[in-house]
Amino acid sequence: MKQSELKKCKEELSDLQGELNKLIDYINSFFDFLPIPVCDLSSTFHIIQINKSVERLTGFDALEIVGEHVEKLFPEKEKVQNLISLLPKKKELDNKELVLIKKNKEKIIINSFWAARVKEEKVEGFFLAFIDITFLKKVHEEMEKTIKLRTQELRNKVEELEKFQKIAIGRELKMIELKEEIRKLKEGN
Amino acid sequence: MNNIVTKELVKKLLSLPGHSKGTIILANLEFLKKRGGDEAFLQLKNKIKELEIPVNLEEVKHRSVHPEGISVLIVLLITEILNLDESGVFEMGRAGMKLSPIVKILTDFFASIDTILEKAPRYWKKYFDFGELKIVEHNKEKKYAIIRLKGYNFHPLACVYHAGYFYQVAKIATDAEHITIKETKCTFRGDPFDEFYLSWNNETK
Known about the structure:
- By secondary structure, chain A is an alpha+beta fold.
- Chain A has two domains: 34-132, Beta-Lactamase, CATH 3.30.450; 133-189.
- Helices cover 59% and strands 23% of the residues of chain A.
- In chain A, strands 2-1-5-4-3 form a five-stranded antiparallel sheet, with helices on both faces.
- The model of chain A has no long low-confidence stretch (mean pLDDT 91).
- Chain B has two domains: 7-98, no CATH class; 110-200.
- In chain B, 51% of the residues lie in helices and 17% in strands.
- Chain B has seven helices and six strands.
- The N and C termini of chain B lie far apart (36 Å).
- Chain A binds chain B through residues 17, 20-21, 24-25, 28, 31, 40, 42-44, 46, 48-49, 61-63, 66-67, 69, 71, 117, 124-125, and chain B through 31, 34-35, 61-64, 91, 94-95, 97-99, 101-102, 104, 108-112, 168, 171-175, 205.
């Protein structure tokens, strides 16, 4: 290879490395910016990488959780096993509700989204993203309770109204009856 | 551990040939920040300045190339700053794997341990322009491997770091509950190369 060609190749390589560095920085910044907790999982469901949102939500540091089996985050082992047994075939699972256990042992409810990373028809790993729905669930449950309570109250009111109506109508009928009697008596006189 | 890095050691390590990619340094810096915060990072910068180690930490990128001596000196300085013992250095080696997403993605660490071991010599060449990593024995049934590292003679603590790194690779790529790593041969004990015995047990989760 000529010196000029070699120089050109080296320059190109250097440019490509620079571009690759930029891409890596971009991916890292974007991954850390994401407000949704995201994990990379290996084909054996070990946690490979987590973003800052996972650290914030779970309280686990990357040093503590990376390398652990994903089951560590979930107390409902059977439910998780069931989900991950479906993944290699289904490739994607959406809106799967799970209980997640934080580092401080607090349990929260999450909605999880799973997707397989496939390369040449072979599953290489998985992505897992989740949203904390504990507050929504609580609000939902409270709303359901309130609705139940209000419905019961309404039912009681309706019952009361029906009773009142019965009494009122009965009274009305009695009045008509009495009026009729008075009319007849008047006519008799 | 204190006072590991002296001016003489800096001179010695910088005189050894060999380069590695910046991604390794970046993972170690991340470990330092996670364990010691910004204050520890500042301490490292000051020590680098004080010892006249030719590196600007702000300019280290995943694909930038640096003398391996610098990479090892950073590991040793972190050991000093965080006052780590050998098990702490082992943890730093594990963290090197945990905190380097690019290494994990670009080197197929999502794959099985058998694939990783098969490709290990190539992975070494991706990140180091010297030395040789060889899998001299790999028993898939009995689940163990012997990893040989030839031509790497920087510091005994680098061996502990490597052991931690290999341990973490096995931890991620296998479903084994118990993983064992042992340095069976070491250039600093008079052997011609470093050798590690890595095993992962048959009991799976």
